[in-house]
Amino acid sequence: MISFGDNKISKNRTINRRMFILGAAKIIFLTGIVGRLFSLQISESSKYKYLSDKNRLREWKIPPQRGIIEDYFGNVIAANDQVFQLHIIPEQVENFNYLMLRLKNTINFNDKQIKAIYKKKSKQKPWETLIASDNLTWSQFSKLNLFLHELSGVKPVLSIARNYPYAKDLVHVLGYVGEASPSDINNYEFIKENHVPGLRVGKTGLEKALEKDLIGKYGIKRFEVNAYGKRINELDFSSGQQGKNFRTTIDLEIQIYAQKILKDKSGSICLMDIYTGDIIALASSPTFNPNSFIHGIKSEEWKEIKANPLKPLINKSIAGLYSPGSTIKPLVALSALEFDVIKPSMTVQCKGHDEPTELYGQKYHCWKEKGHGFMKLRNAIKQSCDTYFYEVARLLGVDRLSITAKKYGLGNELLKGFYFEEKKGIVPNTKWKKNTLGRGWVLGETLITGIGQGYISSTPLQLCLMTAHLANGGFRIKPRIVDDGSISFEDIKAKIENQLYETALIPNLNALEDTEPKFLEPMFRNHENIKFVCDAMYGSTNELYGTSYSSRIEDEKYQFAGKTGTSQVKRITEAEREADLKISEIPYEERDHALYVAFGPYKNPRYSVSILIEHGGTGSSTAAPIAKKIFKKVINRHQEREDIRKKRGQII
Amino acid sequence: MLGQRLNVDAGSFFEKIRSIDYLLIIIILILGIISSFAMYSTDGGEFLYHTKSHILRFGIFFVLFLVLSFVQTKVWHRIGYIFYFVILFMLFWVLYFGVTASGSQRWISLYVFNLQPSELMKIAIIISFAKFYHRTKSMEVNRIKNVVQPLVTLTIPIFLVIAQPDLGTAILIAGTGISVMWLSGLNLKYFVYSFLILMVTAPFAISLLKPYQKLRVLTFFNPDRDPLGAGYQIIQSKIAVGSGGVTGKGFLKGTQGYLEFLPEKHTDFIFTLFSEEFGFVGSIFLLILYVILIYRIILIGFKNRNYFGKLYCFGFASAIFIYVMVNMSMVLGILPIVGSPLPIMSYGGSSMLATMMGLSIVMGCKIYAKELIA
Questions:
Q1: Taking CA atoms, what residue in A is nearest to B258?
Q2: Domain with A496 in it: what CATH number?
Q3: For chain B, how many structural domains are there in total?
Q4: Within a domain: residue B372?
Q5: Of A247, A269, A303, which residue is a domain's last?
Q6: Distance from CA of A60 to the nearest CA of B (A)
Q7: What pLDDT score does B2 carry?
Q8: What is the ipTM of this complex?
């Protein structure tokens, strides 16, 4: 009994003592937990709050709205139109195969479209929006809305997409948009930043070059999502910002007219204001429909465009390179006069094919078989005598010619920053040949350069600018396609007249230096030389025996002065020269390109034009008549153009 | 003297009612209410399955608790070993005929609900140990025979539970058993030696773990190792608790829970959800409730006059403490993720049954504090 009691007492003592020790240990553990709670919920709380928000919030970008592009008169030429889209959220679709069947039956999706949807679906997460179609017709859209209650996970959406109302007529000016490719996204930071699935970005032309300003700023929808990424609540919305709008210098009516003239032909028409450099028309043919690219072009259509031998994808006005042919002769003459190599009175006898110019055993023929006879400079330009210009070129030399040619606009990109596809062309000189071809310059090459053949190549727009420079009295202007309101016609006109007054007294030796002229800088040594060349061009169009005499307009209001050109695409063999085939007898690809440059009205000129018809035959027969139409059109519209210009001037 | 004791023994009904520990009951009720609200929150603020079922269970088991409170301590003492063997048999049964869910075989289907015997083993081990040490004389506690016997008693169910596999419950059973052995006055050297042996054999033990268990241990040491896989639970749980801040996001406003970032939010991670919604203040309040609960149990133990009751109360208090600590440490990223529920708060019938049963024995100890057991 006693032992039992002792045992009990000692046992109770032990258990109480041990309970105390255990209790102490518990307090230590408890402190640990409290400390941990404190560190998580108080010390590091802000970090975990951030992580929690990161967990629960997801942002969806709303596609940015592109800026609108207008013509000179404010007509919209690149618009944003409402489109009907079909969005599918695959996660919310009960039976995807059944849905596809329904789409096939109710809104007539074809097998190809269905296949494309499956392909898209396999590439993205099930909760991401799948754009099954972005150009539903109204009837498809309304039918879809009718059956909507039966189709879960399907959303008909009203959205905005690019539309080109004057599709084919302006594609070479505007370019087109298409779905952003991985390389678009990687190469351009502003595309990456604004990218949303299905975003359309510029692929060519102004749309591509002005992308940074056109694209706008994406909007944001902020959602609360669960752990599986499903949207639970919309929390925030910001609508984004539309891209910058642009007004171009294009006159829609003339542009459409020019495209119409070029229909079924391959070629280009450029029309420019000789003072402001405004490009009024920039036509290129053949063309294609840019609207086909917006929602993904059909492969047959794309193949057809690609396979067309007339190359509709190329903007011939700025990306087509051609030998300028005889259109360069006024410039060669000007260069020779400026460098004081010849006098206008220099006489050369052209004996035709009987006795062509000979150099180191090589014969250089004039185009006219019977020869022009005794020629002075004015007549040589007027009648486009090759023999005369062989002699001028020989005396001038290619290096001096290249100085003048570059000053007047050849061999340079004219619309840098507006068209990535623009070509520079070539203005050859001895140094150029040594550097690029590694061989020395040959005198024979100088002779053919003098008639615009050989290495020399230019875009039609460059020829148009060259003509504008001659027409405005030899002052440097800058062609422009976007009218940003920074240039005023009156200012330019006044500056030019001021400088004309000054340069009449002091010869401007700068003109003979190989330097890049500044804006509105005079590019002549003696203004009389410019006047002489323009007068010769007048003769070429408006006097008997002039090469474009048949295309003249006698009414002074429309009267223009020009120079024809016929550029050979291959060397003419002796046998061919003797055969003297008619155009229709020569294979299309071997026919000459027809060119024409002109400015008008002759008294008080304002516009310059360049026309190129690929494989069109001679400049006088094919190209010059087109100039006649263009001048009629633009001068008829002159008053209207001036009115709007003055109205804008007053606003500023 | 004896008669007087017997009188007390068979004390009147009113005396029994008077000797009930009302504070304990209030704490249990508060925990029950809090857990019901937490469950309502896991259901996304709707009165759905988990909430209904939890409230129903709490109600039934609370009544059971009250009824069983009036069972004399000596009855528990008498059936101590039988209880243990019945549960042990159930564990064997589970091994072969148990119901499988999420990869482990833990339940016996009883049609009305599935019973998880490993939860009941947590209580059975305390009762059987309390009985064993009640009968063992003070000086005999450290005899080899008396050390080996409880160890075997403890090891068999542990291995059975690990085999299910359910490491969490096994650890809780082991922890409970070891605390009771400590309380019984087992020589300190045994604990030191076992600790050393454990340290040496730990690498081998880890190599015996199931791959997913190994992964949990590895993930514990570096949760960012695989943030969307095994580390996901720890990371999301820490984010939930941390983002709760001082006062929490508010009831039903815990985004981590509501938006389903939290795994197992109604069972093992219920504290995380609660902590996200009620913050540091709420967590400390909950912690204080548990501290009071444990303190009351210990107090009842102190006042108990028989060794069985004393050891049981101390053992059960330690067990509750271990459950709470292991669960909280786990969700706060202090311990690896092992399945261990938070007593009363977590959803789960067997766990609630075991806890309430354990509490009723404690209450019995209070009511029959002066009872003597031979």
A1: A226
A2: 3.40.710.10
A3: 1
A4: no
A5: A247
A6: 18
A7: 44
A8: 0.90
